[in-house]
Design goal:
The complex is a heterodimer.
Chain A (H helix, E strand, L loop, with lengths): L4 H21 L4 H26 L5 E9 L2 E7 L1 H24 L8 H20 L3 H19 L6 H28 L8 H6 L4 H19 L8 H7 L2 H26 L5 H23 L4 H28 L3 H36 L10 H4 L1 H14 L6 H14 L7 H33 L16 H19 L1 H16 L4 H4 L19 H22 L4 E4 L17 H11 L4 E6 L11 E6 H22 L6 H19 L1
Antiparallel strand pairs in A: 1-2, 4-5
Chain B lengths: L3 H32 L9 H11 L2 E4 L4 H20 L15 H21 L3 H32 L4 H9 L7 H17 L18 H4 L5 H26 L10 H28 L8 H22 L2
Helix pairs in contact in B: 1-3, 1-9, 1-10, 2-9, 3-4, 3-9, 4-5, 5-6, 5-7, 5-11, 7-9, 7-11, 9-10
The chains are: A mainly alpha, B mainly alpha.
Chain lengths: 667, 316
């Protein structure tokens, strides 16, 4: 079984590509594309995940395919790290494709068949990035992934705003790709052999290793959306159709994390402690920045996009801790941090894709993305609302769902940092733990805003009365992902024993013996005396307590209920406009974290007959990093345009001068 | 295997918490009345209120969703579970292995998120206002609470509350300056989390100042009773966390029922003092404007972080 895992995976990616090509055959035939191709794609996704899951414990497999350039065949390799990310890709894509089967519509920009092509090229390229084993194959797949997702982002290309978002995305993706390319250039160490096997064999000087690490941090960071390379994320995610935003946020960002792990722990042998501290600092800033900005958003998809930045921050924090521990040869703690981080990767993939898909359903039901025009949808869309509640609780990091499990592990890893041999680090890292706790608590705030404003309260617009619940395909897709959130939450021991296969080759240590020392019920990394957590018991406890109270109250008293208009302290008039808006809900965060924002306010004077209040919240980084660069580039292009006179005689003179110069040289 | 004595102790502690929680609230109210030179409503007032509320018909807003109706039960369930985790009488709690200090904070957060969502469910101005303020207090108080617990767990090398208490109970008093800072931070957090002056006023229905009361405005009868009971339970659990971490002496170790019996008067004594101090704090301080709450809780957070740093600097 395990011997043929890699060919099976390659075959499944080919099958995905074939589905994409089939879509082009009948690009406008919606029923064929949506009801046949996408469900088939979901099945392939499940198969891919199954193969990857079964292959993770096995030894790595390699294969060389004579594709690509004559002397440069594609190398593929499947090891536990690849298998882990492939399983995430497979299971998430199964849910998303099923949802997309019910989501696709005609008349939303690109015809369904073409979308199907881009979508499947995107899926296949992500799978191949994860198994690529030489720099050439990796870069080809990486670029295919970027370009196909660009086309997906700009599906609705008639809107100028979306085209702009797509451009920004492509730009940042290519800055990142350039950096990754340079990183591989450093990693091959002058040998000229660009296979990963050769790179593993190189032993780089500390300086060059550091250069390679920094280049990979920039390159993969641009894809993952770490500060300050995050600007494309809140633009591109809302622009894309919801299944695509779900896939990008859930899986594509994780391929960047995969790349970071691959370079740092696999291709480079030694780690330096300050790499980890750097990653930790950047991760913390990213997490805090993401969650604070997500609290003030008034577009539901932008809110989720910023929340993705936050979660990537958490993941990078875990990565930084792992690097630091590993640099000090504290392997079992590195394994703990790494496990927390990988766990958070898969958790984020589940709850974020679930929530993005929910916003898709809301978008189709109401044609509205602005939080200020939604509300009360729990009555009209109970399926979406209740499933979104699962995602909301999970992303807010509440027990017993999955978001909490990984945060718990991460905080446990922080609690072990006093064992580090460096005194300064010992003092600084608890402060970092405080920042993590703050960001985690803020994410609860954000998610209450997200859920409360969309699904609860009174509808803020009259047209919301016509909103309809999601169709059967969409419900199946959402349920699949929500079930993932619950299962990953209540079965942490099982998840971790799978993750051990991944951490073993990377840091040479696992949590297996200790994590399972209690029983299958109790998660106890390091030792049960120190800390243990059993979400299953917790869930059972909450369920039993709630049920007992309910029955007791019914038995001892009565269940009589009268319905009446809301009381609201006796105020007679209540309109939907009297509820908090999304902006109102973000106000405390705007006030508490004011220095984070670049705000321009317009306040009316007290004597204004028609007062208008306006506040524009912008990103400092946009003004600090991007606009200056853009201005310089514009100035330089201005200089270059001096050459362009638009007259043929001038151009002929250029050719003449060039010829003269060439003659001068040749002679 | 889990010992039966442990399970008995566990059940006793939860039942005791459920029964004593309204008494603690009554005691605090009574103390406050005395301090204000009033005769006071009597210690047993909360029980009578609960009894009255349970017997009434529930009136629910016409546009309430099922979430609104289930929330009181979930919140109550979370709080009773929290009572099961925190060592009150003894440290031999089998259930505390299921959730450590971090999970306890998560459990409080779960209850908070549910009650805030329920407050937004009807879509009234007060409900959303209360939810927003409650979540703001939450995101400021939660990390501070976590840092306090971290300080305690770094000292005792464990995040399991039972183990923390066991180890702290065996240490000499007064050698942990970090715990002093943490104690102040914890007091501030407890005031905020339990909707007390100076952050919130449990006795007010003055619209612009309320937080907790604004959220539960739409609840009536059994739902309100459960929420009131859950708040009382929350106060009880917080007091017990404070007692367990900062004044752990006198707590029973091991599941001996007789030990629990001895621990009971100590606990009641400590709670009585704590309740009186709470009433005193509420008496001598004025309620802060809501915009000042971030400063108050920010100070608590900083104190808790300082406690961690002091532990790193001086005590390792």
């Amino acid at each position: 079984m395990s011997i043929s895992a890699l060919p099976t995976i390659l075959l499944l990616t080919c099958a995905w590509l074939a589905l994409g090509v089939a879509g082009v055959v009948a690009p406008r035939h919606l029923r064929f594309v949506a009801k046949i191709l996408f469900p088939a794609s979901a099945l392939f996704g499940i198969a891919l995940a199954a193969v990857a899951l079964s292959a993770a414990p096995a030894a790595p497999e390699e294969i060389v395919l004579p594709l690509g350039l004559p002397d440069l065949p594609f190398h593929f390799r499947l090891d536990a790290l690849s298998a882990f990310f492939l399983s995430v890709l497979g299971t998430i894509s199964a849910g998303v494709s099923t949802f997309a089967a019910g989501y696709l519509r005609k008349g939303e920009g690109t015809p369904p068949g073409l979308q199907c092509l881009y979508y499947h090229v995107f899926l296949a390229s992500m799978a191949l990035v994860l198994v690529a084993d030489d720099a050439y194959a990796f870069m080809v797949m990486w670029e295919t992934m970027a370009v196909s997702s660009f086309f997906l982002v700009t599906s609705d290309h008639r809107s100028a705003e979306i085209r702009r978002a797509g451009f920004l995305y492509l730009l940042v993706a290519h800055v990142g790709a350039l950096s990754i390319l340079l990183c591989f250039g450093v990693l091959q160490g002058g040998a000229g052999d660009y296979t990963f096997a050769a790179m593993r064999g190189q032993s780089l000087a500390p300086f060059w290793a550091t250069v390679a690490f920094l280049l990979s941090l920039v390159g993969f960071g641009a894809k993952a959306g770490i500060l300050p390379l995050h600007v494309w994320l809140p633009e591109a995610h809302p622009a894309a159709p919801s299944p695509v935003s779900a896939l990008m946020s859930a899986v594509m960002l994780k391929t960047a994390i995969y790349g970071l792990l691959r370079v740092t722990f696999d291709l480079l042998h030694t780690q330096v402690w300050w790499w980890g501290v750097l990653a930790l600092a950047i991760g913390l800033l990213t997490a805090l920045f993401g969650v604070i900005f997500s609290a003030v958003q008034s577009d539901m998809k932008r809110l989720l996009a910023y929340s993705s930045i936050e979660n990537i921050g958490f993941i990078v924090v875990g990565f930084g801790l792992a690097v630091t521990f590993q640099a000090y040869a504290m392997s079992s703690l590195a394994a703990l941090a790494l496990t927390a981080m990988l766990y958070h990767c898969v958790n984020h993939a589940y709850f974020k894709s679930l929530l993005f898909l929910c916003t898709g359903s809301v978008l189709h039901a109401t044609r509205e993305r602005a939080l200020g025009k939604l509300g009360g949808l729990i009555h009209k869309m109970p399926w979406v609302a209740w499933l979104a509640l699962v995602g909301t609780l999970a992303i807010a990091g509440l027990p017993p769902l999955n978001g909490f499990a990984s945060e718990w592990l991460l905080l446990q890893a922080f609690l072990f940092t006093p064992g580090l041999p460096d005194g300064y680090l010992n003092m600084l890292i608890p402060v970092a733990a405080a920042a993590v706790a703050l960001a985690a608590a803020l994410s609860g705030y954000v998610m209450v805003k997200f859920y409360g404003v969309i699904f609860l309260g009174q509808p803020r617009e009259e047209k919301l009365a016509e909103a309809h619940d999601a169709g059967i395909w969409e419900r199946v897709g959402l349920t699949w992902l929500a079930a993932g959130c619950v299962l990953l939450g209540v079965l942490p021991v099982q998840v971790i024993s799978f993750l051990d296969h991944v951490t073993k080759p990377l840091v040479g240590e696992t949590l297996a013996q200790t994590a399972r020392s209690g029983s299958w019920l109790f998660l106890a990394p390091i030792n049960p005396d120190r800390a243990s957590y059993s979400p299953m018991l917790l869930l059972a406890g909450i369920a039993v307590a709630t049920a007992v109270i309910w029955i007791a109250v019914r038995r001892l008293y009565h269940g009589r209920v009268r319905r009446a208009p809301p009381w609201d302290c006796g105020f007679p008039l209540q309109t939907p406009r009297m509820q908090d808006t999304a902006e109102g809900f973000g106000q405390p965060v705007r006030q508490v974290f004011e220095p984070f924002f670049r705000m321009t306010r317009e306040l009316p004077s007290p004597f204004d007959a028609a007062p208008r209040y306006r506040v524009v919240v912008e990103d400092h980084f946009w003004h600090w990093c991007y606009l200056p660069v853009a201005r310089v580039v514009e100035k330089l292009t201005g200089v270059v345009t001096l050459l362009q006179r638009g007259r043929i005689s001038v151009y002929l003179t250029y050719s003449f001068v060039t010829l003269l110069l060439l003659l001068l040289f040749v002679r | 295997m889990i010992a039966w004595s442990g399970i008995t102790a566990q059940v006793i502690e939860v039942v005791l918490a459920l029964l004593l929680a309204p008494l603690l609230t009554g005691w605090v109210n009574q103390c406050r009345a005395w301090l204000q030179n009033k005769s006071g409503p009597g210690l047993l007032r909360p029980y009578k209120t609960l009894q009255k509320l349970f017997a009434k018909d529930a009136v629910i807003a016409s546009n309430a969703s099922p979430l609104f109706r289930t929330t009181p039960y979930i919140v109550f369930g979370c709080m009773s579970l929290a009572a099961a985790i925190v060592p009150t009488l003894g440290t031999d709690l089998p259930f505390s292995a299921a959730a450590d200090a971090i999970a306890l904070v998560g459990l409080f957060a779960l209850a908070r998120v549910f009650i805030s969502l329920a407050a937004m469910d009807i879509g009234t101005a007060f409900g959303t206002l209360g939810a927003r303020r409650e979540m703001m207090i939450g995101f400021l108080a939660e990390p501070a609470l976590l840092m306090v617990l971290f300080t305690a767990s770094l000292i005792s090398q464990s995040t399991s509350l039972a183990t923390i208490v066991e180890r702290l109970a065996h240490m000499k008093l007064g050698i942990f300056p970090s715990l002093a800072f943490a104690g102040v931070a914890f007091t501030m957090v407890s005031l905020a989390e339990n909707a007390r002056i100076p952050i919130d006023n449990p006795a007010t229905h003055l619209e612009l100042t309320m937080i907790h009361e604004a959220m539960v405005l739409e609840y009536s009868s059994r739902h309100l009773a459960l929420i009131e009971w859950a708040s009382a339970l929350k106060l009880f659990v917080y007091s017990c966390i404070g007692i367990a971490i900062f004044f752990p002496f006198g707590i029973a170790e091991g599941g001996d029922p007789l030990g629990l019996l001895y621990a009971l008067p100590t606990l009641i004594f400590k709670l009585a003092i704590g309740g009186f101090l709470l009433a005193l704090i509420e008496m001598i301080s004025a309620k802060l404007r809501i915009f000042r709450a971030p400063e108050f809780l920010g100070a608590a957070f900083m104190l808790a972080v300082l406690a961690l740093l002091i532990h790193e600097l001086l005590e390792t």
